[in-house]
Amino acid sequence: MASRFIAPHLAEASYNGVEPLETIAKEIGLPVEQLIKLNANENVYGLPEAVQQAVANAEHHVYPDPAQVQLRAAVAKLLEVQPENICCGAGSDDILDIVIRMNQPKAMVTSIPTFGMYKFLGSVANVPVVNVKRKDDFTLDMDAIIAAIRDNEEDALIVMDEAYAEFCDSTSMSLFGTYPNLLVARTFSKWAGLAGLRLGYCVADAELIKVMMAIKQPYNVNTAADAAGLAALEHRDTILKTVAILRAEKDRLYTELTKVDWLRPVPSDANFVLVEVQRLPAQTLYQGGDLSNYVRISAGKPEQMDAVLAAIKAIEKEYHLYAPIISM
Ligand SMILES: Cc1ncc(COP(=O)(O)O)c(C=O)c1O
């Protein structure tokens, strides 16, 4: 009878995080060394030596700086804004959580299918989430989005989630400064390989940032993440070389998948390719994911992409999927 202590809106709240490789290895009965992990859009190259050193040398027994002075200054310098426009968090997930607590919106409008965190955070904060379906080619239905915003909020905060900004050549940052209702969220998880250390940030009007800094968990960016973030920015050019390889491998993966009769890859500006699986249950390729008959493959090292393409060929052979089925 302890359930009476649980807020009713939380009954359904839960988030399906990515399973660690060890868990998957156990489930399928293979040694973990034989598996390649490409299900979470991480940077498979990991951290450069200098960043690892910075993490090792951080003073882990000391509380991190709640004002994030050095980190905010370094991010601000990179983006040519002021530190007063930056708030850092434990991943961009944390940033989104702080934004929702700061804004307490009547509703959140998202475009589905999308990142599951938005729905999760909405359900935890008891904010209704209005889902606008993407067009058949997965592009945004801007007219429907604008209509949904008008129906729910007269004056909405627009959050641009730019988690994959370093993997494409477009950003909304040029609009920053013109629109006080624009907030851009970014992460170190994808380009800098800091997914496990948890570091993200946002750029927004100083008035919003002031409140975000005041209401966030004071030590949300831990000492190791703080040190890693500073070092990653210092060695950004080196890290961006791995991003360039991953971008090229993503393009190669996309091109190769277009040649497979029973797969339909969706064009991607991120570090992964979403693929519609035809003539087979998508679970044949990947036991997970919540988009029916699609799988998502992260870009990896060239040899890892070769292994993925070889596995697809093996599946093709096993299930006799060479020629398109002609129905009469
Ligand atoms: C669109 C999008 N936003 C945000 C995130 C979360 O990033 P972080 O690790 O910084 O919380 C992800 C991670 O997969 C993502 O795909």
TrEMBL record:
Annotated pathway: Amino-acid biosynthesis; L-histidine biosynthesis; L-histidine from 5-phospho-alpha-D-ribose 1-diphosphate: step 7/9
Catalytically driven reaction(s): L-histidinol phosphate + 2-oxoglutarate = 3-(imidazol-4-yl)-2-oxopropyl phosphate + L-glutamate
Residues in coiled coil: none
Gene3D superfamilies linked to this entry: Aspartate Aminotransferase, domain 1 (3.90.1150.10), Type I PLP-dependent aspartate aminotransferase-like (Major domain) (3.40.640.10)
Domain of life of the source: Eukaryota
EC number of this enzyme: 2.6.1.9
Keyword Heme (UniProt): no
UniProt-listed InterPro entries: Aminotransferase_I/II_large (IPR004839), PyrdxlP-dep_Trfase (IPR015424), PyrdxlP-dep_Trfase_major (IPR015421), PyrdxlP-dep_Trfase_small (IPR015422)
Domain Aminotransferase class I/classII large: 153-281
Any matching Pfam family: Aminotran_1_2
A Gene Ontology molecular function term of the record: histidinol-phosphate transaminase activity
Protein name: histidinol-phosphate transaminase
Organism: Monosiga brevicollis (Choanoflagellate)
Highest classification ranks of the organism: Eukaryota, Choanoflagellata, Craspedida, Salpingoecidae, Monosiga
